[in-house]
Amino acid sequence: MLSFASDYIEGAHPSILDALAKTNLVPQPGYGEDEYCRRAAEKIRAACRAPDADVFFISGGTQTNRIVISAMLGTVDGVLSPATGHINGHEGGAIESTGHKVLALPHRDGKLDAAAVRSYLADFYADREGYPHMVRPGMLYLTHPTEYGTLYAKDELTALRQVAGEYDLPVFLDGARLGYALATPSSDVTLEDLARLTDCFSIGGTKVGALLGEAVVFPRGNAPKHFFTYIKQQGALLAKGRVLGLQFDTLFTDGLYQKIAAGAVRQADRIRAALGELGVPSAVPSPTNQIFPVLSNEDAAALAQEVIYTFWEKADEGHAVIRLCTSWATTDEKVDALIAVLRRILGGR
Amino acid sequence: MLSFASDYIEGAHPSILDALAKTNLVPQPGYGEDEYCRRAAEKIRAACRAPDADVFFISGGTQTNRIVISAMLGTVDGVLSPATGHINGHEGGAIESTGHKVLALPHRDGKLDAAAVRSYLADFYADREGYPHMVRPGMLYLTHPTEYGTLYAKDELTALRQVAGEYDLPVFLDGARLGYALATPSSDVTLEDLARLTDCFSIGGTKVGALLGEAVVFPRGNAPKHFFTYIKQQGALLAKGRVLGLQFDTLFTDGLYQKIAAGAVRQADRIRAALGELGVPSAVPSPTNQIFPVLSNEDAAALAQEVIYTFWEKADEGHAVIRLCTSWATTDEKVDALIAVLRRILGGR
Amino acid sequence: MLSFASDYIEGAHPSILDALAKTNLVPQPGYGEDEYCRRAAEKIRAACRAPDADVFFISGGTQTNRIVISAMLGTVDGVLSPATGHINGHEGGAIESTGHKVLALPHRDGKLDAAAVRSYLADFYADREGYPHMVRPGMLYLTHPTEYGTLYAKDELTALRQVAGEYDLPVFLDGARLGYALATPSSDVTLEDLARLTDCFSIGGTKVGALLGEAVVFPRGNAPKHFFTYIKQQGALLAKGRVLGLQFDTLFTDGLYQKIAAGAVRQADRIRAALGELGVPSAVPSPTNQIFPVLSNEDAAALAQEVIYTFWEKADEGHAVIRLCTSWATTDEKVDALIAVLRRILGGR
Amino acid sequence: MLSFASDYIEGAHPSILDALAKTNLVPQPGYGEDEYCRRAAEKIRAACRAPDADVFFISGGTQTNRIVISAMLGTVDGVLSPATGHINGHEGGAIESTGHKVLALPHRDGKLDAAAVRSYLADFYADREGYPHMVRPGMLYLTHPTEYGTLYAKDELTALRQVAGEYDLPVFLDGARLGYALATPSSDVTLEDLARLTDCFSIGGTKVGALLGEAVVFPRGNAPKHFFTYIKQQGALLAKGRVLGLQFDTLFTDGLYQKIAAGAVRQADRIRAALGELGVPSAVPSPTNQIFPVLSNEDAAALAQEVIYTFWEKADEGHAVIRLCTSWATTDEKVDALIAVLRRILGGR
């Protein structure tokens, strides 16, 4: 059956498997001290034009959020997040398990607004020192793309950075699907911008062609003290760190990371165009590799007979928001087949 | 340069890379719901003759210890461990980071003795309810092989199980290198024994031929409630769970797991024989894939010019304990070369 | 200056100081094993008609919430709370510091509605096992009186108990100001009802005439295992536990606890009546010892010259909600004086 | 029955009860903002000649250790403690519950030796950055008096301070019974020395005449950032902070704190002298208010018929170490009576 369920239903981009095979017998030290990690970090620094950046590799996205956020927060701090932020709803309480509160703020299509952040902070600091019986806002968490596939524009990020700076809050940007953001033609945000406008960001591998792995970038060499030991303590240090290093080395060679993502966005655009022609509304204006059509419950049920997708949420009693997702492995043929099904089911409405 | 530094200096056994390549494009659900995880669990249940076992896959050994132990302990419980236990010294305080104390007990060559455990527990329960201002001993942690490569005999495990049972303590056996234990000719402990004599044990993949991954077995379907969500919360759930499942599926097909380990132990036996002929003492009587010769500081320095090994600890002012380690990738040729070097350096002493 | 800032601005009810003086030289064992704790627990069991209740004494309200909730929750559980619940906003992230998320629900005047709770739970359990990537709702937290001084009616509590029971959730009722609830003439909820309708509740001493201290009641002998040691571990076990025991022994002798509260509610009623005559609106319909008048910013400023009160929140640009609070130490004279000031300032509006 | 079980079997020194009674109706702000806390802090600063000191009041000793240590440690740090340190054995795992390991070092009569600390640190830093898979030693914890009633000499403290400084470790001294140290004639360590030689120390009230309460002193204004909020988050902030402030205000007026302790030490000296005359050996050379005679099991049993004492530990099969403790409430008559009993039971041996 056709599956557009997510961007992690297949294995890895073939170049990664090739690289694993080629280097398999080369002895390397463990725990991230191997030459592939070193090389991958070098390439990421270059791509971000951040020569002083600290770069670490961690196995998954929740792991990354959990470790980065708890390492950057002070003891009595919480993290400001859009209410829809991945850390607030879909990580099983990972942040709270480290002892910190997620301070959920209103969002628009998954995005925070600088004015809303400023208003929250102004209230907290109405008393000059901040209200001492409440959780202190200790950092700003953003996702890019968001959980709804939407993107910040550069001036939106700049405004958020500005307000965070006024209140001395570091900014962490969760880039679990960052490749798709970078590869979206209408987006004006580059890796270099992220290195300038955040204090830490992650570059997701798992959902952009790797078997597993996220790169964590502290762009100004500003990793928390003893961050390596913290990764170890939290159980996230792989003995064969080479597995992560080699994948990012491959992804950041000859622009593979963005090529993979660009292909997926192009296929998503084709699906979006077909849905548009069929008059299917979109729940959110996502320009990346995730698409959120609103279908009648009947159409959704009919589609489920032929295509694996993700049920996202109820739109109203009669309609559902579903999610279709493309990836490095989404071929023209698969998309043609999907569009044919969509036309057949939705064409006669 | 020759490297016997550890059993994780190379990539994965070639069968694993093959399996990854062959299944790369097969769409699978995420988060461990894929068919490879299901199949691997089935094969592990069969190998353990534990048809009701709960089986989970986690990326690394410290991660596994951290999650399993904290999930099995009650709020005020600590974990009894040999002082040399991996959790006590080499995991960056991973257990304590979950809020629990490691209660370190005296060891012999890395092993706990049932009598020492009983004496500790009898003291704690001198007051029938246990002393309420102290950390309660809540479970028993063992490693097999130990950090020194030594093994429990079946009657030693049985005795530990017995005393743990008397005090209602579950037993968790950390098998980060379990394959080498199972493949050691002189050992009488089988997977089936472990399923019977423990409440949980891990089957290490990372150090026995996998890229990464440990299987966690609760042999009587006795996984802690909501253990899956706990893995997620702790950041240890891989989106592409297939990567773990497929590796264990491969390792538990046609006895590959034990074959890999048996080869490594055989090569270690050759090195041990050569060291014996050279009259080099061993710091501990390890029969598995780790060897701990005691060398003079001069010999150790000379050896370091030609072979990468691990410095283990100072034996005395003039001598060092070093560790040599074999793996699935240790060939006859590599061992021949090592033995030649050893004879050259140590032969004339 | 007149102060109606809170119910903890004075020391203790004189009977408590007398009891401390009288027993001062009587040797007693430490850590809550003294005879006063035993006697206080006996009297509380009798007052609740809960002969099997486990009763503990803890120094403060946040301490109590933190310890009780974290002891009752499972590892991956969060606590359902009205968004205005004390644990969600005013305890510095105490619950999260124990690793658990506060799942904030909409409220009305500080109260949860059974229908809203049922709707949340039905959504979570749409998938029969509950959504495994999300925090599990693990218990229900209520305050009575609420942070707004409002009270649950017995049928409201019964409905909440019903829905909690359907989903196997324990109910914990935070009674930091419980005395005022019990002493409010219009309330139909008794200690006996609480023992029947909750799995745990606290009886606040600090804000009802004690120097410090809260009693925690597990009405069916259902205290979490090793709760005593958990109190110790969390640093909340007083060496001179007698100080807590003696105070509750005194408060639960001859109905002193309710007498103290009844006096305060009566004084609050006098103030409410005066405000009503003056046409001052109330932000919430609190019938207990807290009063929340809405004043123009000018009137609020004028009042602040003569009376210490608590600024509660902005009502709109021109108006403020303030809080006035009575206690065991609020005399007729003090209230007369306050009413005179209120009439002078607000009379001519 | 005569009780020498501990120094917390009675209530508070009468001056404290008087002060509570006298100030009972004076309205004061809550949460430590009252004038008694302010005054007590001022007097403590003066007594320590530490005009910039930050002073906080916390309800109990374990609470204090738990909060101070976890606030001062970095994320991956552990605390160096003598193996007999209160935090290592008798606080129910309080430190570990905050995520940090207690790194237990060998002791002599409860005391750490600067050379042993230096040796541990030199090993850890054999690799210049410290071994990154292990818990980092992050601070030094001492008790004074120790759990065995023994005291550091000023030059011992100076040596410990020196080695800690070399490795950039803060020193925290747990003074749960500090008064008795200050009042011991043979001791050369003053409050002023502690302010100079530590980064934080506590001044115990509970065991030196208060109902409850410990003062925490950061002598150079070096309290961890947002320490007040951390106290709140950990549940240790009393609403009626006045109760703590007033007690320390009283204890630090006219030298009451040391007077109380001096009386207790004098009575302990009388008991020590009597035991000496009777030829009873002492398990440790404690010069403070705790005495640790070694009795035959028969004598211990006979004594238990007439005097309440604490069983400390088994000395050998035939002998027990017991503890006798004096306090502010130990009168000449009580000690006369005890000595008479001791002579009767032990005299004819």
Q: Mind sketching the topology for me?
A:
The structure is a homotetramer of 349-residue chains.
Chain A: E1 2-3, H1 14-23, H2 35-48, E2 54-58, H3 61-72, E3 77-82, H4 86-89, H5 94-97, E4 102-105, H6 114-124, E5 136-143, H7 154-166, E6 171-174, H8 178-182, H9 191-197, E7 200-204, E8 214-218, H10 227-233, H11 242-251, H12 256-277, E9 290-291, E10 294-296, H13 297-304, E11 307-308, E12 310-316, E13 319-325, H14 332-346
Helix pairs in contact in A: 1-11, 2-11, 6-7, 12-14
Describe this entry's structure for a reader.
4 copies of one chain form a homotetramer. By secondary structure, chain A is an alpha/beta fold. Chain A folds into 2 domains: 96 residues, Alpha-Beta Complex (Aspartate Aminotransferase, domain 1), CATH 3.90.1150; 241 residues, Type I PLP-dependent aspartate aminotransferase-like (Major domain) (Aspartate Aminotransferase, domain 2, 3-Layer(aba) Sandwich), CATH 3.40.640.10. Helix content of chain A is 41%, strand content 17%. Chain A contains 14 helices and 13 strands. In chain A, helix 1 packs across helix 11, helix 2 runs parallel beside helix 11 and helix 12 packs parallel to helix 14. At the B-D interface, loops of B face loops of D.
Quickly list its features:
homotetramer, 349 residues, alpha/beta, Aspartate Aminotransferase, domain 1, Aspartate Aminotransferase, domain 2, 2 domains, seven-stranded mixed sheet, four-stranded antiparallel sheet, globular
